[in-house]
Amino acid sequence: MGRMVLGLFLGLILSSVGLYWWQGRAQVEEKAPPPPEVEEALSPEDLPITDPADMTGPQPPEASELTREQIRFFRYDRNRDLTITRNEMLSTRSDGFRKLDVDGNNLLTFEEWAVTTAERFDGADSDGDGRLTPQEFATTAPKRVAKPKCRC
């Protein structure tokens, strides 16, 4: 007997929820805006005739001037969330690390660093006197990559 009353009670609850849901949808559809009017499609032969001399186009967008520090910041901020994570900071250094890691074990020893640095120094010291002049030191600067020209 208890199960029968419980089943009847649950049936009434489900039917009232269904009725409430159905009435709610009917009210929303009742207040919905009318459907947009469909414009008649023009045939390709009916092109508009106009004089372009009196027309003006939109203004071109202006490029924002970034400071050198902002450009440097965005070089590290890969996902442009205005914060630099540790991984973003270290990701730009991974190619340099791989060049220094001669044996490829992902461990940079002092010897690997010292040998690479000494070879770089010897390559820059053109007269072999063990000292770098300002002109010789300028050759150790990173090479600037030329930006491709726009083919507009």
Quick structural summary:
With 152 residues, the chain is mainly α. Helices cover 47% and strands 0% of the residues. The longest helix is centred in the first third of the chain and has 29 residues, at 2-30.
Overview of the structural elements:
With 152 residues, this protein is mainly α. It contains six helices and no strands. The chain is flat and about 100 Å long. The termini are far apart. The relative contact order is 0.03. The model has no long low-confidence stretch (mean pLDDT 79).
Total helical segments: 6
Structural class per helix/strand content?
A: mainly alpha
Q: Helix fraction?
A: 40-55%
| Biggest beta sheet summary | none
Order of SSEs: HHHHHH
What is the chains' assembly state? single chain
Weakly predicted, low-confidence segments:
none
Please give the number of β-strands.
0
From the N-terminal CA to the C-terminal CA, the straight-line distance is 84 Å
Rg on CA atoms, Å: 36 Å
Overall average pLDDT: 79
Q: What is the 3D form?
A: flat
What fraction of residues sit in β-strands? under 5%
How does the SSE layout of this entry go?
Elements: H1 2-30, H2 68-76, H3 86-91, H4 94-100, H5 110-124, H6 134-138
Q: Which terms summarize this structure?
A:
single chain; 152 residues; mainly alpha; 6 helices; 47% helix; flat
